[in-house]
Write a structure and sequence with these properties.
The chain has one helix and no strands. It is mainly α.
Length: about 40
Amino acid sequence: MSKKRNDLIKADVLWRSFGYASKKIFHNLTFFSTSHIFV
């Protein structure tokens, strides 16, 4: 039971960090594309 819980916590942490990273990348991409349009 505790092993399963640890795996769930690990998966949750991985998913959160992945979501944060993808949001950051998406934000950077949109920022670069808009700045290229205005230049």
